[in-house]
Specification:
Chain lengths: ~450, ~300
Amino acid sequence: MRYQFTQRVTLPAAAACIMAAAPAGAQDLQSVRREIQEMRQLYDSRLAQMKADYETRIKDMEQRLKSAEDATAVATDKAVAAQQTAAQAAQAGPADAAIGTSKNSDNAFNPAISAVLDGKFGVFSTNPNTYKIPGFMLGDETSPGKRGIALGESEIGLSANVDQALYGNVTLSFSSENTVSVEEAFLQTTALPYGLKVKAGRFFSDIGYLNNQHAHTWDFADTALPYRAMLNTQYDDDGVQLKWVAPTTTFVEIGSEVFRGDAFPAAGAKNAGLGSYTAFTHVGGDINDSSSYRTGLSWLHTEARNRVNGPDTFTGRDNLFILDGVYKWAPDGNPVERNLKLQGEFFYRREAGDLNGMTFGGDHQLGWYAQAVYQFMPDWRVGVRYDGVSASQLNSSFAGTVLDSRGTTPQRESIMADYSTSEFGRFRIQYNHDESRPKTDHQALLQYTISLGAHGAHSY
Amino acid sequence: MKLAKLALLSLCLVAAGQMTPAEAALSVFACEPEWGALATELGGNKVDVYVATTAKQDPHQIQARPSLIARVRSADLVACTGAELEVGWMPVVFRQSGNAKVQPGGPGYFAAADYVRLLEVPNRLDRADGDVHAAGNPHIQTSPKNIRLVAVALGKKLATLDPPNAAFYAERQKAFLQKWDEASAKRDAKAASLKGVNIVAQHRFWIYMMDWLGMKEGLTIEPKPGVPPGSAHIAELIESIPKQGAKMILFTSYEDARAADTIGERTKIPAVMLPATVGGSAAATDLIALYDDIVNRLLAGLGGHAGARS
């Protein structure tokens, strides 16, 4: 810039100096005129050149200005993005990222909220409202379903770390009859040493494999017969649990629970409200990159005082043993395209006590199921299940009661197919060839299950 | 009586289970192979590394397997990507492991994504947009620049957890970074011709690599993150790929090749498999080899060759 300015001043100045210094002779005058002429030509040509030069420079600068403006816009965008990131980081927690904001942050500590909605369409060849399993006293949630369109169980769940030592979770269940129940409401320790954990409140017992799994994670629209017949689908009661994970490379977990004893098969909260207890162990690991397993052995002791089922009342105790196993396979351990899940459990129960005033010593009951679910392409799965229960024949004085097995072996075969729109939405069709009653029941179920909001990781 | 029997049985089971090896100073649980490889580089024989997943597995979709719970139970350090990549499985593993010190926020938890600048932080969170991560794109291991940043942080973490060996870790970190920078300079020079190259990706997996190599991602086979493409979307891609001038289709070692192959055949551009992480290809035996292999495969792709699938 400065160089050009100097040049512009010096050219005419030089011309003036030359004119002033010129001698006054005629010839000289001619030569001076020629010189001036030349000078003027030179001056004009330089001026034209400069003009052109200036124009290109101005154009160049205009371009630079424009790109600088663009860059500023990008920088602003980036700054906004960075601010957003910083705000998110501040919310997420690292103390060094949070720059003193006076904003009310109460809502930032909201627990994770989730809702699971379930709906079914059912076709039953035998009236589901009169459902019974001969030889078994049933709980109140053992209906195989409803005919026609019906809302299933809707769940609302809240969970969060309470503080540095505790985690809390509550799951409320809304039935299609507009009743609300507390399905789970528990605290769990997160900071105990030596692999120990304590859980307290209301929760699904960790016995067996399926017992602690919420209905929306089941691979079939209904639960297996032994769970329905002996545990009122799931044993869920108020209690305390102690669990320990061994410091081994093979997964070994041992646990025990004490429950109030108010939920089926317990009743009446016996032993001053310590009516049930359990012990269980689970062992599991990887077989190779593609497959893994978990197996377990559990024991549930329950006491019942005046457990009522229809016209029959039972007082006594049950000891239930469950052997469970699950095996999962996926090519290279990547379940996205294809995967297989095999699962089975075996139940053995002894029930003794008093039914309607008649004492009995040891009713042996068995239950089993085996199922396979195969995902053959992303989002599509098919499954088969076989399940059954059987109860020993009691003497003739129990004829006509719920414990009268009538010489039958209640069993069922099911097939299902489901399609998932994502991990949050699933549509299922299932057929049950149900012989859990003396008369065969053909059941068809259509089901949707969707989850909204926070969706916690699923257990194995 | 029965309780006693069960307890005895449980004790026998414990005895049968192998105890974790105790000779190394730190037991490290790595969620993904890249962090396992990095921990081994930085910790040498002072760390005992267990890697939870392989390059053939999609880290979004891992089961909370019993073996993972058992390994986290005894870990001194859990090194994961973070940024919600493991949100579908690690929360359960953490809760069931009963190991307080490695829980997120605890001294033994390390999230690599905390030490790099995350790209693609969404402005709106809606599951209608597919599998979006609120914290940003979590596939940070696709750029060696991120590995360098994480290496600095992870080296410090090892030293904090195991002060008696702090000098050892510092020494190894220095040596590693030197080796890393040399390899990176060589590799970057080789990769210069990849600048500005337009590609199609199966999933929005490679954005940090794009940033590193100056490449451009025009189209994605997945219509939305985590949503498999339908036939209409594939037809649309086949039509628009030539217009965009994409030079190749990229998919990872854990993704199915079929969609990429179909589109590649129809558009006459190579479908190139890139190792997602260490172990994702025969050549990607460690971190340096991983990025060398990625660049080699991209250069081959630029030359029109699809390259090996393993």
